[in-house]
Give the backbone structure.
Amino acid sequence: MKKNLFLIPFLLLALAGCVPEATLTLDRQTLSFHTAGGTEQIRVSANYPWTASSSDAWLSIQYTEGSDLLTVKAGENRSQDSRTGRITVESMGLTQTLTVTQAQLDAIVLKEGDQVEIDAKAQQVSIKLSANVDMNATVKEGAPWCKVVSTKAMTDRTAILSVEKNDSRAERSAVIVFSGASASTEVRIRQSGRPQVLAMTVKGVQKFTVPVLSAPGDLDFYGYLWNGKQQSDYVVGTTLTLDPAASTSLRIEGHNAYTVYFPTIDGLTEIDFLGL
């Protein structure tokens, strides 16, 4: 009934042969929402009834017949991409389009995990990320040996770190903070200490057992034979068969090792690795 009453003035004008030309305008052509979404109102000026519609699920619209206000509501954008929607307002064959945009969820994503382990030598380290915001990289306090050299400003980005040589036997770590807009993430760089090294030459030995540690440690063993053959990748307790007539050069590297025992070499019972 209300709809018919609204049309009566136009019907009377039509019967009188004086039908006004249809008009349709919006007070704004664009709307912009933050990531969290929200509600905005658009004023519609029309001299005939109008309707509004949207095919975008993240946009909802509300209006009352006979009113000049169109309410637009956007839900939260939880994706890492911005989005654009359109609302169409129609009246008597006339069309107006309202373009609605919404910002993305700010994000900085590490592409290869949040832990990087490196050896003791000085080097450069590459950290690969994806980001949809302008990004800064900083090293948290307490790690002057690790510096950010550069970040390549692309959608897929690479941060280059300069790491000094670790001359101590202790492992150390640094935390790199990547931040931009409301997004941030961290990656930890772990650098091992310099290895403890024992190099020696044995002769007249037929059996050699990879030495045993008196306390937990990270022991790497390398055996080099003078006749050109190389033996490596041995674990603790492995027994090597050597040529007693030849001299064998042995190299042992360890991290955080204490006393090392050599059960198969006469006169060489133990060596204090902490002193190396």
In short: The longest helix spans residues 2-15. The chain has a mean pLDDT of 80.
